[in-house]
Structure formats: C-alpha cells, structure tokens
Amino acid sequence: MIQDIYPHHLDNQFRNKEIEDEDYVVLFHGLNVCMSKNWKLPTYKEVKQFGFELQYACATDGQAYYVTRKEVDPIKLDGYTYVAKQAFRQSLTPEDRAFWLTILTCWHIYKWYSMHQFCGHCGKELVHAEKERMMYCPECKSMFFPTIAPCVIVGLVNKDKILMSKYAGRAYGGFALLAGFIEVGETPEQAVAREVMEEVGLKVKNIRYYKSQPWGTDCNMLLGFYCDLDGDDAIHIDQNELSMAGWYGRDDINIQDIGITLTYEMMTYFKEHPEEF
C-alpha cells in the first residue's frame, strides 16, 4: 500500500528547523502541486523570492519538505507547472510511492495549517508551538492539533462472494468496498455495522480487523475490516451514496492491485486467500 515504501523512510515528526536553500517547498493550488515534468519540486532557493510563509512538514530519507501555512496564488517559475496531486496514483515502485506519500503527507499538513489560522473559541490569531505540531491561542490558551478523520473500509463477505460497489456522483468510477466515517461516540466496529445498514440495508456479524492505512489525500485514517453477512442478502442501496452494489465471486473480481490502496488490497486478499474466509 502507499505506506509501504521500504527501504525509504518518511519522518513525519515535527521539527523546529530553519529552512535551507536546498530544502524542497511543496506549493499547492487547489488540488494541484507545483513541480517539473520529471516530478522535481522547487527548492527554497528557487522560490524564496516570493516571500511565502513556510512551515516544516516532514522529511523523506533526510530530505526536508516545507509547505505554506495558508493558500497562496500560483507562481510562474521556469520549468515548473501545476500537476494534479493524484497524478502519481498509478506508481508502482517503492521510490515512486515514497514520493507520493510525501506529497500527500504535505497536503494533509498544509490543509490543517490553512484551516487553523484563527482560534475557533475566541477568534484571535493562532501561534505555532515551538516543540510540537500544535497551534495555540495566546489569548484563551486553546490548543489545536492536526485533524485526522477515521474511516472504515468494509469487506462484507457472503460465503464465497464479497460485496463490491461503485460510488454515486464521484469522479472515480471503479469498484470500491463500502466505506464511511466513524461518528462521535462510536467504535470502528459499530461504524462497520451502521455503514453497511445505511448503504445497502444489510446486517453483519463476525466483524474482524484487517489493516489500516493513512490516506492524506482526504486527511483520513482508513481502518479495514472484514465481516460476514447476517441473514437476508437482498441489497437495498442508498442511491445518494452508491450507483450500484452487488455480490461478486472470486472469479468475478477483475481488478489490478498496484499496491496503493487498502480497498484494492482487501479485494485481492479475498480473491487469493479463500482459506481465510
């Protein structure tokens, strides 16, 4: 999956580090990121003329990456253009995945900074803590830490079949598993049962955890679960969420798992490991 980048290493710990000329600057505009045709990001030396307020984000293999603290206008820089941050999704090698994971981690951190300029309690401008990634209010002392939205991915199994679906009203038109956000006061297992009932009108049992995945593109943490159908298998889809849903046998699963997403890994695992189900 996207986090499987060995022998590369992403260090996402906060560092109170002064930026240097050769550090990379990740500039976002909308859903796009500034880079060259060969995926090179601009260095601080190349962009410091623009006077951006920059914040340390992370480091990969010792190379530091910085982001802006708020949304900035796109720049014109020779050799660089703005590319969709999803453009690397088809990457296969650990090196490519390491780069994309870095970009998405920077995106997650950038989005949090850009949405935490002022205190949600008293409205005063927030200040960055010196020793951790935290914004605080010097007036009312409120503290704000990075926001991570937990979600469940659900592989619902009915004997030798698994339920696969397609989203309604989204650009992505491929197969997916059922998914949804965990509500306040709810366990992940309760979220699994609720989401399945809400989206396809089915009951579940034997809920068991599989694996997790950070998903910086939407600032999420994905928690994968398998569960078994409990009772009637008649599907009643929520048309606001899904365009279709159906039961698929192992021979019907024709996807290419390129080692990026938890969803595709779970589909592939069901197909290739019948002994586990």
- What is the beta-strand fraction? 25-35%
**CATH homologous superfamily (4th level) name of the largest domain:** Nucleoside Triphosphate Pyrophosphohydrolase
Mean pLDDT: 92
Secondary-structure element order, as H and E?
Answer: EEEEHEEEHEEEEEEHEEEH
* Main pleated sheet: 6 strands, mixed
Q: Count the helices. How many?
A: 4
The portion of residues assigned to helices is: 10-25%
Contiguous runs where pLDDT drops below 50 for at least 5 residues: none
Predict the CATH topology of the largest domain. Answer: Nucleoside Triphosphate Pyrophosphohydrolase
Cα Rg: 21 Å
Detailed description of the structure:
The protein has 277 residues and is α+β, with helices and mostly antiparallel strands. It folds into three domains: 10-115, no CATH class; 117-147, no CATH class; 149-276, Alpha-Beta Complex (Nucleoside Triphosphate Pyrophosphohydrolase). Helix content is 18%, strand content 31%. It contains four helices and 16 strands. Strands 11, 12, 13, 14, 15 and 16 form a six-stranded mixed β-sheet that branches. A hairpin with a 6-residue loop joins strand 9 (135-136) and strand 10 (143-144). The longest helix has 21 residues, at 94-114. The model has no long low-confidence stretch (mean pLDDT 92).
